[in-house]
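Customer escalation, tier 2.

The customer says the design service returned an amino acid string that "doesn't look like it belongs to this structure." They asked us to rerun it and document both sides in this ticket. The original structure tokens are below, unchanged.
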């Protein structure tokens, strides 16, 4: 029998496996995906949001705990557990040394992106390099790893973990960490969560930015088995991505990052939200949900030539035209309405000192919705349009935890079953998102879950040994 069983193969699972192994426990990790697709959504990540009170290696200036907390509080609208959130925030300030010990490298601050370099540490080689480093370290430490191993059931004795099942196979362990992700790849569950509008399933037009293997099988099993759940099933890390992106695994390159530099219109050629509300890293994750609420779940990000070179270019080129009327025809939007929307916006712009690195004074007056920053007339051809669809990264429905990352049943923590990553992120993320916080939550609670699982397993083993000696 193994000491600690870890179910999942992303950042949180790997952090749990490494910590449990470092604590002296024998560890088996079960990854549902084949080896070439290992790593869950973590393979598509880029960075970790880090608290720091002074400049630290790849981080400039300071990003203190209270500012981090206020940023999180703002994007979640207060739907967050402050105690658990602050655990993740504080852990983000001290985890990079441990990450480096396991082969993770960080790149120097990005030039021209001061507000990002201040808050986020970027992985050299991105998330794929991070999970590969963790897998190499886990193998070197003696963690057993199995691929193509989708667990479909958990055997419980009350609130105690006994075994996991893969079909007819039964795998016992003294303690277990669940880190198998959300249900974003499960189209049927997404339809159920988002419902219908005007007789159409809202989720039918969703694209999945991340892994195709997160079907929510274990999450549903645990909820049905009586584990305490938390979160709204319709809430998720939902980003506006290029409508031409693949159904699964498009990752970061399908995101369209020019929203704050122009305007966004729906299929009726009308604006519907403030494109300049706040810095893009703090606001990019609300746009998927905004687009999901528009007719047909589609929208169009419109820019002119002044924006070129000021945002990370997406993988697909935008639709290009020399006039607004031509752009409307090329995108299938009503020409008269589209031109009127842009010209009305242009007249409303009050251009001050444009600076995309700060909350500048370029704003609109007299129109709704307003654009509160970076408002410039769209008047320099050629013009560009990017069709947008909602891109689901991960879902927020999860299992309720405490500071030890224990799964709860009827308000009582399990003595040997823990959860980390997307399966519990809803404790901190009731809604909304800010760049890099998912990796902060997964790293913090993955490490906690692994440590606690090892402690529970080794204590169980010691108790069994003492009982055997007493009987003898």
């Amino acid at each position: 029998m193994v000491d600690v069983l870890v179910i999942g193969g992303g950042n949180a699972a790997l952090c749990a496996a490494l910590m449990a192994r470092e604590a002296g426990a024998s560890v088996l990790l079960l990854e549902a995906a084949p080896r070439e697709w290992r790593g869950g959504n973590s393979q598509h990540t880029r960075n970790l949001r880090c608290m720091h009170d002074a400049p630290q290696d790849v981080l400039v200036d300071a990003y203190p705990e209270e500012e981090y907390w206020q940023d999180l509080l703002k994007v979640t609208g207060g739907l967050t557990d402050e105690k658990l959130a602050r655990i993740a925030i504080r852990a983000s300030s001290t985890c990079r040394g441990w990450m480096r010990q396991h082969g993770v490298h960080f790149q120097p601050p990005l030039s021209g992106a001061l507000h990002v370099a201040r808050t986020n540490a970027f992985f050299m080689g991105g998330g794929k390099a991070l999970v590969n480093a963790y897998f190499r370290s886990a193998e070197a430490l003696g963690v057993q790893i199995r691929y193509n191993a989708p667990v479909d059931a958990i055997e419980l004795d009350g609130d105690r973990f006994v075994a996991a099942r893969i079909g007819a196979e039964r795998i016992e362990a003294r303690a277990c960490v669940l880190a198998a992700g959300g249900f974003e790849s499960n189209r049927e569950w997404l339809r159920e969560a988002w419902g219908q509008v005007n007789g159409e399933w809202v989720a039918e037009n969703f694209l999945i930015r991340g892994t195709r293997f997160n079907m929510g099988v274990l999450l549903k099993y645990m909820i049905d088995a009586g584990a305490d759940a938390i979160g709204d099933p319709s809430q998720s890390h939902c980003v506006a991505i290029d409508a031409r992106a693949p159904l699964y695994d498009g990752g970061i390159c399908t995101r369209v990052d020019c929203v704050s530099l122009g305007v966004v219109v729906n299929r009726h050629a009308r604006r519907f939200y403030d494109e300049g509300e706040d810095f893009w890293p703090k606001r990019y994750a609300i746009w998927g949900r905004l687009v999901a609420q528009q007719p047909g779940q589609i929208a169009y990000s419109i820019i002119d030539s002044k924006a070129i070179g000021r945002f990370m270019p997406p993988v697909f080129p935008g639709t290009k035209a020399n006039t607004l009327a031509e752009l409307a025809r090329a995108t299938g939007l009503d020409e008269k309405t589209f031109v009127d929307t842009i010209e009305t916006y242009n007249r409303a712009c009050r251009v001050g000192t444009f600076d995309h690195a700060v909350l500048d004074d370029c704003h609109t007056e007299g129109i709704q919705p307003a654009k509160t920053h970076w408002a410039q007339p769209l008047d320099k051809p050629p013009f560009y349009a990017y069709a947008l669809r909602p891109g689901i990264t991960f879902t927020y429905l999860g299992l309720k935890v405490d500071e030890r990352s224990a799964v709860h049943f009827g308000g009582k923590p399990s003595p040997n079953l823990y959860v980390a990553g997307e399966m519990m992120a809803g404790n901190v993320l009731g809604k909304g998102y800010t760049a890099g916080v998912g990796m902060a939550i997964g790293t913090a609670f993955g490490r906690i879950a692994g440590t606690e699982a090892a402690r529970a397993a080794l204590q169980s083993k010691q108790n069994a040994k003492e009982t055997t000696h007493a009987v003898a």
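Tier 2 assessment: The sequence is consistent with the input. DSSP finds 13 helices and 22 strands in the chain. The radius of gyration is 24 Å. Sent an explanation to the customer and offered a walkthrough call.
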